[in-house]
Amino acid sequence: MTHETLTVTDNRTGKSYEIPITHDTIRAMDLRQIKVNEDDFGMMSYDPAFKNTASTKSTITDIDGDKGILQYRGYPIEQLAEQSTYLEVAYLILNGELPTQAELDEWTREITHHTLIHENVKQLFDAFRYDAHPMGMLISSLAALSTFYPEASNIGDIKSRDLQIKRLIAKAPTLAAFAYRHSVGLPYNYPDNDLSYTGNFLNMMFKMVEPRYKPEPALERALDVLFILHADHEQNCGTNAMRSVGSSNVDPYCAAAAAAAALYGPLHGGANEAVIRMLTEIGSLDNIPAFIERVKNREVRLMGFGHRVYKNYDPRAKIIKRIADEVFAVTGANPLLDIALELERIALEDDYFIERKLYPNVDFYSGIIYQAMGLPTAMFPVMFAIPRMVGWLAQWVEMLDDDEQAIARPRQIYLGARNRDYVSIDQR
Ligand code: ACO
After folding, report:
1. pLDDT tens-digit readout, 115-132
2. Which of the ends of the chain has fewer CB neighbours closer than 10 A, N or C?
3. Nearest alpha carbon, ligand 1 atom 22
4. HSE toward the beta carbon, residue 364, CA cutoff 13 A
């Protein structure tokens, strides 16, 4: 018979402890009983960057990094990308089940009717410098929304919580598009409620003087698929920020601003911009072998390759590669695609990449598509933040409803000085 326990012997004292194992995991608090004497605080575990620590139980998103599998609420990402829509997936991620037609219609109606932002929020954008980064504007405007909806601080009120969730999902594209329009000096476009979630986003981004904007169906659908692929990715840096900041019981606008700030970093949502820079620098197919040599000599990294969790082809990258063709059929080819395809072909045959299990990740092809759609690189992290809003919110709700969660407050190993007497400035 197997015992679902771990026996630990403390060689300092010779004592043994039996620690329960649940879901292949031990509880860090079970280590606290391990002490050398009664005054001892007890054993802790040390895990900078949470590389081997589960911060929560979750039922939202599952990744099998070795097999290259990604599922939302048990549904494979490939099926959702093929057959679903972003708003349906958003409903699934938030509620745990796919909606009926009536539920989807009501959900779509509600999201569509919360897309407008207060005119004072519009003025907030005017206050930014002409060349302000759109991600900085998005983060600031998300936090600013908390001042327009002060009832949002009542996070225990389920009705109010649901309303704020709808507002955040509905207004994220509006804030993003207003940030873009400000950064290029164009007038803001108000939402068009007759359009789909992504069709309206394209309208707010690209409408010029025509009376009615008609989104190109292929681009509208491609963007919808990209949004599905980015909707959630379990406990990544931004989501961890949402949960950690949200654990103080702050309102969801401020928590979402913190999550977006985490996403802004080049190690997280900024990698697709680095891919474009890299492909532009390589410039032509002839230069690829020399670039690969530089990667192998550790002078540069092959951006858009490798992942902390995926040790196989990122399933999202496979889908993105396919929709790239559909986008380029409308926009015309992006010459960087040929370089990317050849780079991938050579890398996947090379021992350096094979041994380290380095495959293209979601960012390898997404930037090329966004660029072909006419988006400047500064907008790439914004394009990630819009769909990730639903993931942040679902994870936030899961955290609030979890009785085991409390304010996030890690321990430290203090290695600094102790018990020093203050020395007056003339004595130093
Ligand atoms: N190019 C070249 N070598 C690489 C790359 C790469 N892109 N990624 C990893 N390696 C090598 C490392 O040098 C290391 O080799 P070594 O064992 O000989 O020292 C080995 O592969 C393992 O790499 P780590 O850095 O330990 O892997 P980690 O899990 O910490 O890093 C990361 C993952 C940050 C994504 C890394 O692969 C990377 O920097 N990739 C490029 C940036 C990128 O595309 N980021 C987007 C990630 S997806 C997202 O956030 C949405």
Report:
1. 999 999 999 999 999 999
2. N
3. 356
4. 29
CA of 237 to the centre of ligand 1 (A): 16
Tokens of 16: 């043994």
Query: What residues are annotated to the active site?
Result: 268, 307, 363
The CA–CA distances, whole Å, from 91 to 57, 103, 151, 166 equal 20, 9, 23, 10
Domain containing 65: what range? 58-402
Task: Single out the residue of 412, 367, 376, 415 nearest to residue 269, CA to CA.
Answer: 367
Q: Do residue 16 and residue 123 come from a single domain?
A: no
Q: Which residue's CA lies nearest to atom 40 of ligand 1?
A: 306
Q: Whose CA is nearest to atom 11 of ligand 1?
A: 356
Domain assignment present for 369: yes
Please say if the pLDDT value at position 1 is more than 80: no
> What distance in Å separates the CA atoms of residue 66 and residue 36, rounded to the nearest whole number?
40
**If we measure between CA atoms, which residue out of 59, 13, 53 comes closest to residue 34?**
13
If you average pLDDT over residues 235-254, what whole number do you get? 98
Same domain, 32 and 151: no
Q: Which residues line ligand 1 (CB under 6 A)?
A: 268, 271, 295, 301-308, 356, 358, 361-363
* Pair 175, 146 in one domain: yes
Domain co-membership, 40 together with 121: no
Give the CA count within 13 Å in the CB-facing half-sphere of 375.
29
For 162-221, how does the pLDDT look when each residue is reduced to its tens digit (9 = 90+)? 999 999 999 999 999 999 999 999 999 999 999 999 999 999 999 999 999 999 999 999
Q: Are 77 and 71 in contact (CB under 8 A)?
A: yes
In a domain, 52, yes or no: no
- Dist. CA 392 → ligand 1 center (Å): 25
Task: Give the chain's length.
Answer: 428
**Which structure tokens are listed for 91?**
């409903």
21 and 80 belong to one structural domain:
no
Which CA distances in Å does 63 have to 229, 230, 269, 372? Answer: 13, 13, 18, 29
| Sheet of 69-72, strands arranged across | 61-64, 69-72, 75-76
Is residue 34 domain-shared with residue 179, that is, in the same domain? no
d(CA 325, CA 47): 43
Closest-CA residue, ligand 1 atom 24, reads 308
Measured in Å, residue 110 CA sits from the centre of ligand 1 at 41
Asked if residue 413 is part of any domain, the answer here is no
